[in-house]
Write a structure and sequence with these properties.
- This protein is mainly alpha-helical.
- The chain folds into two domains: 117 residues; 87 residues, no CATH class.
- Helices cover 53% and strands 8% of the residues.
- Strands 1-2-3 form a three-stranded parallel β-sheet.
- Strand 1, helix 2 and strand 2 form a beta-alpha-beta unit.
- The longest helix is centred in the C-terminal third of the chain and has 22 residues.
- It is globular.
- The termini are far apart.
- The N terminus is likely disordered.
């Protein structure tokens, strides 16, 4: 029943925003942003309040490419690239976001970049091709828990996670950004590469024509 409710809400929000994501030569910034809490447990209420505080504290208008943020009870944050919504969960499988507001901020930014990059498929493909040369698939770790869901997603996340790291460095400072990036429980190999080769990966992303809008 819960999955059905999420599907119905997602379909409705997508229908209302059918022209939201397109393929322009510039990024679409969303002025109206809705936080929708679907459950009334204490953690979901706290998470919603924390998100509202972060949006008030930091100017994220240049990173806002979704119309909706749905707060649910348990699961892993995700944001389909061509949907207008982020799905955020108070009880993640690996992270308690209500215990770390800066990690919550970093993850929010991460999910927004999926929508941002969806608007630049040509530039993104160029970046991924160059990253494949820097990190050939034969050199990727055999432990899939250190990477993304598949090979394609791993190279995509090398771009997403670099943009995330670059953004939180600007917002929170180098030391705090490094703490967040180096202690996360997902995409470990990817985040280690961002720390190890920040300048090199950044140059590839910029050479492909992608810029950090922050």
């Amino acid at each position: 029943m819960r999955i059905l409710i999420i599907f119905i809400i997602s379909s409705f929000l997508s229908a209302c925003s059918s022209n939201y994501l397109r393929q322009p030569s510039y990024a679409v910034e969303v002025k109206e942003f809705r936080i929708i809490r679907l459950e009334d447990d204490l953690k979901s209420i706290k998470l919603q309040s924390m998100i509202e505080d972060l949006i008030s504290k930091y100017d994220l208008s240049k990173l806002r490419f979704r119309r909706n943020l749905l707060v649910l009870k348990s699961g892993r944050p995700f944001s389909p690239a061509k949907e207008p919504s982020i799905y955020f969960f108070a009880e993640s499988r690996s992270t308690d976001y209500t215990a770390d507001k800066n990690r919550l901020l970093s993850t929010l930014i991460h999910e927004e970049y999926h929508a941002y990059l969806a608007q630049f498929p040509v530039e993104l493909e160029k970046a991924k091709i160059m990253l494949m040369k820097l990190y050939p698939k034969e050199q990727l770790p055999s432990n899939k828990n250190e990477m993304a869901d598949d090979l394609e997603s791993t190279y995509l996340h090398l771009v997403v996670c670099w943009l995330e790291y670059d953004s939180i460095k600007k917002l929170l400072g180098q030391e705090e950004a490094k703490r967040i990036i180096s202690t996360g429980s997902v995409y470990r190999w990817i985040y280690d590469r961002e720390l190890e080769s920040y300048e090199k990966i950044g140059a590839i992303i910029k050479d492909a024509g992608l810029l950090n809008p922050l």
